UniProtKB/TrEMBL annotation:
This is Cell division protein FtsQ. It comes from Pigmentiphaga litoralis. InterPro entries: SGNH_hydro_sf. It comes from the Bacteria. GO terms for molecular function: hydrolase activity, acting on ester bonds.
Length: 214
């Protein structure tokens, strides 16, 4: 039996993939809503996992969407909110973290494994301490090059790292949801509107098919 989303309160947090209208703040939010969930999405551009343990200003804006409402752009006021505080206030049945690209260090020769481990386990630990179920959504293939210097090899490395370290959160491997280059991008990392529609639908389906209980 799959995860029952009808009536479930879902909190989605993450980076720039949630921070612009027509990105996942629209497509994934809408998909989970159609499946019956009550969804709150908060995306802060440029954030790493550890930034969600305290109030951290965004470096390139952000956006928020509550339920059936429209996307609200946060502009210069964009900042994370501590995940424990968000959970205490909203008491969601599920937290979805969409993050990976910001921590993959595409522009660096080496992957910062120790730093990334501290980031990821800090956030998953804070969520786990509340007893709330969580899902971590890893990066999509995107396309190689662009201003972020994304490569398929580093995307694979980041995804494999998350798969090994995101527990107790369930892991949704976005690389398994499409083939390399299938979802077109505008800059190597961020997808086109069509790409975000396909990614959002694929994530929603993956979440809905997770086991009903741990």
């Amino acid at each position: 039996m799959g995860l029952l989303l009808a009536g479930l309160s879902v909190l989605i947090i993450g980076d720039s993939h949630l921070a612009t209208p027509n990105y996942l703040i629209s497509t994934l939010h809408d998909d989970l809503s159609r499946r019956g969930a009550v969804v709150h999405t908060l995306g802060i551009c440029g954030t790493n996992a550890g930034d969600w343990l305290k109030v951290t200003p965004g470096t390139c804006g952000g956006a928020e969407r509550i339920g059936a409402g429209k996307v609200t752009l946060l502009g210069s006021k964009a900042a994370t909110r501590p995940v424990a505080q968000l959970i205490e206030q909203e008491k969601p049945g599920l937290v979805v973290v969409v993050m990976g690209d910001t921590m993959a260090a595409y522009d660096k020769p080496n992957f910062p494994k120790t730093w990334a481990w501290q980031q990821v386990t800090g956030l998953t630990g804070a969520i786990a301490a509340t007893g709330t179920r969580c899902v971590w959504v890893g990066p999509a293939w995107g396309s190689e090059g662009g201003k972020y210097g994304k490569t398929y090899a580093r995307a694979e490395l980041m995804s494999a790292f998350l798969a090994a370290n995101a527990a107790p959160c369930s892991y949704v491997d976005s690389l398994k949801l499409s083939t390399k280059g299938q979802w077109a991008t505008i800059d190597g990392q961020h997808l086109t509107t069509t790409g975000y529609q396909q990614w959002g639908a694929a994530i929603g389906k993956a979440i809905s098919t997770l086991p009903a209980a741990k």
